[in-house]
Amino acid sequence: MTTTPEFLTLWPTQLFKCDLPGHDKANPLLAQKILDADHAAQQLTTQYLDANLFSDQHPVLQWLKQSVQRAVLDYARHAGIEYSIEFAIQGWANVNRLGDYHNLHNHPHAWLSGTYYVQLPTTDDVPPGRNDRTPNCISFYDPRPQANMLAIANDPQVDPEYRVRPHPGLLMLWPAFLHHSVHPNLSHTPRISVSFNVILKWSDEYLPQ
Questions:
Q1: Which residue from 165, 142, 164, 166 is spatially nearest to 155, judged by alpha carbons?
Q2: Which domains does the chain have, with CATH numbers?
Q3: Nearest-angstrom CA–CA distance, 114 and 128
Q4: Which residues have CB under 8 Å from 30's CB, separation 6+?
Q5: Can you say how many angstroms the Cα of residue 36 is from the centroid of all Cα atoms in its chain?
Q6: Would you state the pLDDT for residue 8?
Q7: What φ, ψ does residue 23 adopt, rounded to 5°?
Q8: Cα torsion for 35, 36, 42, 43, to the nearest 10°?
Q9: Could you tell me the pTM of the whole model?
Q10: Quick one: which of 112, 131, 165, 173 is 20 to 30 A from 75 by CA?
């Protein structure tokens, strides 16, 4: 028994962000590879489960796959998972043109989800309009729907949204249960990214004690 206050931070939601070394050389190759595939299959972005982008043995895609694998291990280690885990990565390309966006969603049946940003439009050709628009940003939402019911100034629960303005070369990882959305592309230049799910190869060792 102690009279010393104890403060607990419960139910954390860990996100990972990293700029991949070498992205300046890899991204033009990735963009061309993805645009060629998009030209051949115009529903490439919406039919994302039809194929696994990372099964392609092209060196630039294998570079990205290996980068994602390393990020997953770093994510697990930082979360306190010190035992070995086995997982598969299922990836797909996104080509978002003028007006394209992604509604609020999460990724069922996966452990982690993530995105790597290949090409982002500049804001130079965005048409006039409201100054609070954030085209091409990604927003993440507090998974506890009641968390901001009685928030006060400087309380970290006050803002249920975390918004990221991505840039080429950025890799992000987050829990697959986390709801997120992507703001519309307001440019004639496509936004190109690679999204993926991390699927655990199940082991009873993963069960909490």
A1: 142
A2: 16-123+134-143+153-201 (2.60.120.620)
A3: 31
A4: 60, 61, 64, 118, 192, 194
A5: 23
A6: 87
A7: -65, -30
A8: -70
A9: 0.91
A10: 165
